[in-house]
Amino acid sequence: MTDWWAGLAPAEARLTCGGDQHRLAWREGELRAPDHADADAERTLAALGGERCACVEMLDAWHAHASDLRVLVLGSRGPSDPLAAPRDAGTGVSGGLLAGAGPRGPVRAAAHRTALFHYGSAAVARVMVSGGPAAGVTPGGLVPDPDAELAGLLGLGGGLPARLAATVAAAWAARLEGLDRPDTAGPAVARLHAALAGRATAALRTWLGDPALPVDVRMTDGSAEPLLARVGDGLRAELPFGWLSRVWARDLAVVAGRFCLAAEVSAGRWRLSVLDPAIGPPQRLSIELAAGG
Amino acid sequence: MPFDAELYLRLAGERALASRESSERMSWGPVLTAARALVAVGAIEAGAAQTVVDDYDLAADLRGPERRVAGMRMRGRTRLAAAHRAAAPPAPLPAPRVVACDRMLETAAEQIRVRSVSVGPRSVSVAVVVTERIPGQSGPGPGWQGGGPSQIRLADDRGTTVTASFTGGGSDREWRGHFRSDAPLAADTRWIEVEGDRVELGAGSSAAEVSIVSLPGDDPAMSYLWRQVAAQRQRHGPPGMLADAIDALAAAGRLDPDGQQLAGLAAVLDALAQPGGPGWPGRGWFGPGGPGPGRPGPGRPGPGGTVLPEPWRSLLAGRGRANGPVGAVAIGAATPSFGGGLSVLVLVLQSEPEGFQVEVETSAELGHLPFASVVDERAELTWWAADDRGGHYLGETSNWSSSQDGYEGTIDFWPALDPRAAVLELMPTAVTERAVITVPLPWAAGR
């Protein structure tokens, strides 16, 4: 069985923690805080009234939201859908209403989209950002907002929000594989379907260069072959939720000018089922993703 | 496949994000509009719909940095209000002693026109129009320092003195609102002093009667749309707002989008948008092309001159009226809880040639105030009124604010009061019930 993170490049962001710039590093499906040797000890100290550690709080927030479908509701649908950079600390609202984790510097650089798809070498995005997890405390007398923690995760740079989305998509794809039909996933079905529809639509519109293209995305149970067809002046796509994890999250939705319906990996080679813009029969395309990514 | 209301709303949210409608807050955007309509017809629970609206509200905020603070605050406010309502339905408001008056007072910095005084068990509220006294100066003067009136001192005939703070709104030089104290004065005081100037209180409230009336259980979808028309001016909704609601109701199988009933709705919107009307947006609310195929229908004023449905016909009959009676009526009537648990306190009616206003308080926040992304209509009111000559009137909230005792503001009614009317029924109207406060108009007694 293929590890869900296969083909995803490492990613790294920096944040201000205890007055210093620290790293948060994602690799092979795990987020780590390499500048903290003992995260458990940091948690204990904070619980006893010691200084709160922004890195450890961010790790905890990451794990708390690792299967949270709201990550897919709020997060980027793709390159055409960037989230705003977190606010400057000088406004009193840093990291996108993320006060509560200690002082932070301003945004050092805008977050860049991480190039996850490479034909030669692995990629690591390094972006200096401000921000940290929120404790639900907002500055300036605002009403505490329980969304602040998740907004803080999505305000990280360095490609980490994309890895979080990939984590959530993989978790739910695995859950659905254990079900006979995706529509038995209960109250999550609408969010799963919308997450798939939003991202597939964004990818299709970008692919064909038509930001207003009508697209009807149906979520299938994966038993049938995925489908893309022209209907009237728009498109209809029939895709399983797993397309998000296997294709979209790996930045394989559009490869070499073709739209990818499905992806399978074997011995390090990815076999893609793709369509050209004329939307004829699916074609096969094999690629290799970089080592470590 | 059965209609999935949550999926419908979430896909609407995806379309809105993709079209970058998200750069503006989604207040009255397609998700909220559809959510409200689907909740109104029972296609989805209010809590589930509110979750979707809040999700896409936050998604929009994350894409527009200038909106993040306001959006987050409003979502929190929405949640807190909902939690408050769920935990403790608001208690009916106690009726205060209300006296209408029209007294002009002057301080060093301003002129204060006292319109009414409301002496309640926990506070005193003085409805005022305040004008800054800076002759020849157009901008904010040093007396207000650009911030409007702040505090005044009030006293009763027992020698008790309290401080009252101003809430309200206005322009550089004139503000309308209330001075409200945070402590009571004697309920039976013969007068109060406002900054040392005595205002005799005299006789109290009028002999208003209050009743609660159930509304007929008409077609939920059309009832919902008519409520939106009645509330449109206080909603500040964007053009096309009804189109989003109609699409959602049609998708849910609750409405025929090409039906004749929608043509009647369009006719009313057209009439409301005519010159001399209240200046409402008209058919633009339907979005491009109007409702259905645009064919004429009953009630649509076409070449044949069809008749509008009531109460809209009599409402529009008052278009252009500018001879409303001038006077004030102290009402001081409190309703029991009705509709979704709200109660309303009607303080004073002030009639002028171009229209009339009613000062009110409510026991809970109204959900339809601008920029409150609330899907549950139970916290909403539309403000109808009817006179004894068959005329109707429609109000909108203005100068709305909160206080320790509840929420207060002014309802501006259109058109002007019929000078021949002797009785007015004020009808704050919820989804299933309305309160009817019957007010004799004193100027009619002398005729």
Walk me through this protein's architecture.
The complex is a heterodimer of chains A (293) and B (447). Chain A has helices spanning 39-47, 54-64, 70-74, 148-154, 160-177, 189-208, 242-246; strands at 11-17, 20-27, 30-32, 125-128, 215-220, 227-231, 234-240, 254-255, 258-266, 269-275, 283-288. Chain A has 2 domains: 11-167, no CATH class; 181-288. Residues 88-144 of chain A have low confidence and may be disordered. Chain A has a 4-stranded mixed β-sheet, with helices on one face. Chain A is of the alpha+beta class and 293 residues long. Chain A contains 7 helices and 11 strands. With 447 residues, chain B is α+β, with helices and mostly antiparallel strands. Chain B has 9 helices and 17 strands. In chain B, strand 4 (151-155) and strand 5 (161-170) form a beta hairpin. The longest helix of chain B has 20 residues, at 68-87. The chains are: A alpha+beta (293), B alpha+beta (447). Chain A binds chain B through residues 70, 73-74, 77, 81-85, 87, 93, 96-97, 138, 142-145, 147-148, 151, 154, 187, 189-191, 193-194, 197-198, 201-202, 205, 211-212, and chain B through 4, 6-7, 9-11, 13-14, 17-19, 55-56, 58-59, 62-65, 68-69, 72-73, 75-77, 80.
